[in-house]
Amino acid sequence: MTKTKLTWRYPRYFWVANSIELFERAAYYGMFITLTLYLTREVGYSDVQTGWIAAFFAGFIYLAPTFTGALSDKLGFRFALICAFILLAAGYLILGALPFKGTALLALTLIMFGGSIVKPVITGTVAVASDQVNRARAYSIFYQMVNIGAFVGKTAAKPLRTGLGLKYINYYSAAMALIALVVVLILYRNVESGGVGKRYKEILTGLVRVMGNFRFMGIILITAGFWMIQGQLYATMPKYALRMIGESAAPEWLANINPLMVILAVVPITHLVRRMKPVRSIGISLMIIPLSALSISLSPLLAASFGRSVPLGLFSLHPITLMLVIGIGLQGLAECFLSPRFFEYASKQAPPDQIGLYMGYAHLNIFIAWLLGFILSGYLLDAFCPDPATLPPALQAQRLAALKGEAPMPGAYDHAHVIWYVFASIGAAAFLALNLFERITGHRERE
């Protein structure tokens, strides 16, 4: 019997699927990094309303694939992708062309449903195209495509926002979705999934069973603390940067520090912690993540010493920009310790004969985190870093003068940094909870 060897060679449809994923992620993250801005500035929702709407969109796009994966098996992968990208292109186009409250909700529903179809189909294609020996390499390529797509999308969003306007980011995303649709129509051949999809009754029964497992739900809820902070790259940071620094800020590019850090550091860090118990690696991540939020909160201290410009040799940065760079960099570093080991650790909380079932719900932590994190963000922004359009005209003028260094910021923004204290506290609580969880359960990892 011939032993399978490690290889980087995969069937053509594997590379087609990964190309599709790149276009889909470029579309999604281009829109997502500016979504809260768009809903407030263009559609007219308040910060609190935006928080609730974005929370359900961002949260359910992680939960829905559990159900749409079964639908994709029934439809066939190719037809499912065609439907998905028609929905995505229509959703992005409607979001940009019709910035009204009712149509925006319809558009986000289409995008959420379309996006939730793409992920299980592409990951399913990667699984079918690889064997057990080469599956880790196959998913590493997929993961890189996700990060490259996210980087491209967020990079494109900044010049589109400042040069043409927020709605053109949605047109860009619609164009990326249409390109992906063309690739599917021309190059993607149908891939048989092997009928592995579950029936909806089985999915719901499994969800109830998983939610009754204290150990599994414990690690899900604890790591949700990490993702609540990471999610603020999209929920809080864009508005915070533009309101406190001005329109010259580039939150889209600042957000790219996270995937760039992951791309550069995840391999060496994974190698470094390969012999470390997963819980220790997760613990390091949960120790770093509150520091990322705390560092962002320290910008007033820099401003008190350097004013609006911190010299850094050949260039200088606004104090808030500098601390955002440091904080987002720490987020990326923390993710490198968490992501490679989380699934390994979570799987050990499941009964030995039900690991596959439980890991199908491992993304519940992001669903919970982004649902709660985006809602909380809306209230915190409203309280500590309000929409300038809601201020009296005199205070709006004072804020614009302050951004030029000609006046103090209005008192409404004196405690904007408190937002990050809140999220730092959540991260610290998650770190303490992990240690308490280990003590309560008396968990001993199986070798």
What does this structure look like?
There is one protein chain. This protein has 447 residues and is mostly helical. 76% of the residues lie in helices and 1% in strands. The protein has helices at residues 12-32, 35-43, 47-63, 65-75, 77-97, 101-129, 135-163, 167-187, 200-211, 214-230, 232-235, 237-245, 251-255, 257-272, 278-297, 299-306, 319-347, 355-359, 364-384, 393-403, 418-441; strands at 310-312, 315-317. A two-stranded antiparallel sheet has the order 1-2. The chain is globular, with a radius of gyration of 22 Å.
Question: How would you summarize this macromolecular structure in one to three sentences?
Answer:
The protein has helices at 12-32, 35-43, 47-63, 65-75, 77-97, 101-129, 135-163, 167-187, 200-211, 214-230, 232-235, 237-245, 251-255, 257-272, 278-297, 299-306, 319-347, 355-359, 364-384, 393-403, 418-441, and strands at 310-312, 315-317. It is mostly helical. The longest helix has 29 residues, at 101-129.
Q: What structural category arises from helix and sheet content? A: mainly alpha
User: Given the structure, what is the number of helices?
Assistant: 21
State which percent range the strand residues make up: under 5%
Order of strands side by side in the largest beta sheet?
1-2
SS elements, strand count? 2
Helix percent band: over 70%
- Cα gyration radius (Å): 22 Å
Instruction: Look at the structure and give the mean pLDDT.
Output: 91
Describe the secondary-structure layout:
Layout: H1 12-32, H2 35-43, H3 47-63, H4 65-75, H5 77-97, H6 101-129, H7 135-163, H8 167-187, H9 200-211, H10 214-230, H11 232-235, H12 237-245, H13 251-255, H14 257-272, H15 278-297, H16 299-306, E1 310-312, E2 315-317, H17 319-347, H18 355-359, H19 364-384, H20 393-403, H21 418-441
Antiparallel strand pairs: 1-2
Helix pairs in contact: 1-6, 1-7, 1-8, 2-3, 3-6, 3-19, 4-5, 4-6, 5-6, 5-8, 6-7, 7-8, 7-14, 10-15, 10-17, 10-19, 10-21, 14-17, 15-17, 15-21, 16-17
